[in-house]
Amino acid sequence: MSSVILVRYGEIGLKGKNRIYFERVLINNIRRSLGDLKGIEVTREHGRLYVKHEDAPDRVIERLQRVFGIVSVSSARVVPLDMEAVKKGALDEVKDNIKGGGTFKVEAKRANKKFPYKSLEINSIVGEHILKNTEGLKVDVNNPLFTVKIEVRENSAYIYSTSYPAPGGLPVGAAGKGGLMISGGIDSPVAGWLAMKRGVEVIGIHFHSFPFTSERSKEKVVELCRVLASYGGPIKLFVVPFTRIQSEIKKNCPEKFYVTIMRRMMFRIAERISLREGCTVLFTGENLGQVASQTLESMAVIERVVDMPVLRPLITMDKSEIIEKAKEIGTYDISIQPYEDCCTIFVPKHPATKPKLNEVEKAEENISGFEDLVEEAVEKAESFYVDPKQGVP
């Protein structure tokens, strides 16, 4: 008897003729996620993926629980297509997992119709065998404490009792590439995670205003990208020098437009970097009504400077929902570290919440050679790859 990890996917199964493409991307992502573990082999069989391994199954499962495209995983015993082998495997599963009695049921699925026993017959035969060879157990088909699951497939039968949830969605890379404007706050890492869940490979674009913002604020963003990378693989991060642009805005523009013009400059830079990297869309952590730059009027004026579509995964979420998701994915504790990013400096007392496009454009004319400033920031941006978070199993 051997063991494997059963990998289940969800909406990939609905992709029709394109399903094989999504499966291949998912298999590649699984191999990447498990690449440093022992004896990893990923195979595919009719709607299931199987991971053979020599490492501890807990380590493999914990990694797979962070791979987008997977909905759940189970560590399963693999037995021959023989009823005696199935009975023995099921009994071993019970003895290894039930201590001190309780209720159970057997739940079989016969995908291989050549197997001589139907699902209900398997349930009955295996259940009877378990009862005869254990003490203190009773069958309860409605509300059991323990369920022995048996999948009879093409070449083997798989026996397991526990399923572990995974994030679902689509495998990263299956839906293209996008630029993620990432600060050190709570929102933008969550937006990046949600984009990745829909199969998008993201590059990070962070604006750094040294010495107004510390080197530690940049390190904070790197750590946030490490967490995201643990779900979708290494992330290319661009750190854009933004001090000169912010200083010019403060020196030459009306105070009420500081934030609006700053965001417009960020969008210009982010679009140019994203286009160079082969991206087709920008993602932001903006949320409707949360701050002055996130009113409908502000967002409309700000994004007029780019032709690339701007997607905002958090647009309808309230703050408590975003915080809950940040805690769930592991970015919250990093985001609340007290290191300011450039969006929190030079904030006016009374920012414009309903800026007029013509007024903002006129204010920008006061910045001498702002197109050169944008191009300089793009050219001087530091870029490097951030590998998955250290300490992830």
Q: Can you lay out the helices and strands and say which pair or pack?
A:
Layout: E1 2-9, H1 19-33, E2 41-45, E3 48-52, H2 57-64, E4 70-79, H3 83-97, E5 102-110, H4 119-132, E6 137-139, E7 146-152, E8 157-160, E9 164-165, E10 177-181, H5 187-197, E11 201-208, H6 215-232, E12 235-241, H7 243-252, H8 258-276, E13 281-283, H9 296-302, E14 310-311, H10 319-329, H11 332-335, H12 357-364, H13 370-380, E15 382-386
Parallel strand pairs: 5-6, 5-7, 10-11, 10-13, 11-12, 13-14
Antiparallel strand pairs: 1-3, 1-4, 2-3, 4-8, 4-9, 7-8, 12-15
Helix pairs in contact: 3-4, 5-6, 5-10, 7-8, 8-13
Can you give a write-up of this model?
This protein is an alpha/beta fold. The chain is 38% helix and 21% strand. It has 13 helices and 15 strands. The protein has helices at 19-33, 57-64, 83-97, 119-132, 187-197, 215-232, 243-252, 258-276, 296-302, 319-329, 332-335, 357-364, 370-380; strands at 2-9, 41-45, 48-52, 70-79, 102-110, 137-139, 146-152, 157-160, 164-165, 177-181, 201-208, 235-241, 281-283, 310-311, 382-386. Strands 1, 2, 3, 4, 5, 6, 7, 8 and 9 form a 9-stranded mixed beta sheet that branches. Strands 14-13-10-11-12-15 form a 6-stranded mixed beta sheet. A hairpin with a 2-residue loop joins strand 2 and strand 3 (48-52). Helix 5 runs parallel beside helix 6 (215-232) and helix 8 (258-276) crosses helix 13. The mean pLDDT is 92.
